[in-house]
């Protein structure tokens, strides 16, 4: 979740930056930056579902540096902004609990 540069990743893998990007794309079918962003978004989604942390705290704890950008890319990936995603999830849980108690 910590910021990491592609140069650092390439160095750690023992490749040039160009070779690292090319090999990564071939293996994962996406760019390294998109892959990292998607892992951060997956973690953010998990935190929204399982914790009471604020959207802002989740944004920064998952390595995003800007709440507007975080909200935009979260919505692109999951179809809802983070706060609405959490609200919808809670409504579904409440509905489930209501059915279970009936």
Helix and strand arrangement:
Elements: H1 6-13, H2 17-28, H3 32-50, H4 55-61, H5 67-78, H6 82-101
Helix pairs in contact: 1-2
Structure description:
It is a single chain. By secondary structure, this protein is mainly α. 76% of the residues lie in helices and 0% in strands. The chain has six helices and no strands. It has helices at residues 6-13, 17-28, 32-50, 55-61, 67-78, 82-101. The longest helix is centred in the C-terminal third of the chain and has 20 residues, at 82-101. The model has no long low-confidence stretch (mean pLDDT 91).
Keywords:
102 residues, 76% helix
Give the proportion of residues in helices. over 70%
Q: Which term fits the overall shape?
A: elongated
Low-confidence stretches: none
> What is the terminal separation in angstroms?
42 Å
Question: What order do the helices and strands follow?
Answer: HHHHHH
Largest sheet: none
Total helical elements: 6
User: Which class do the helix and strand fractions yield?
Assistant: mainly alpha
Beta strands, count: 0
Q: What integer is the average pLDDT?
A: 91
Strand fraction equals under 5%
Rg calculated over all Cα atoms? 17 Å
Outline of this structure?
The protein is 76% helix and 0% strand.
């Amino acid at each position: 979740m910590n910021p990491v540069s592609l140069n650092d990743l390439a160095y750690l893998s023992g490749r040039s930056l160009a070779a690292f990007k090319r090999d990564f794309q071939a293996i994962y079918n996406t760019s390294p930056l998109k892959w990292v962003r998607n892992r951060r978004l997956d973690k953010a989604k998990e935190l929204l579902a399982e914790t009471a942390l604020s959207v802002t705290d989740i944004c920064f704890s998952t390595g995003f540096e800007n709440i507007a950008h975080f909200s935009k890319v979260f919505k692109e990936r999951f179809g809802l902004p983070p706060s609405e995603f959490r609200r919808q999830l809670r409504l579904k849980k409440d509905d489930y609990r209501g059915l279970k108690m009936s």
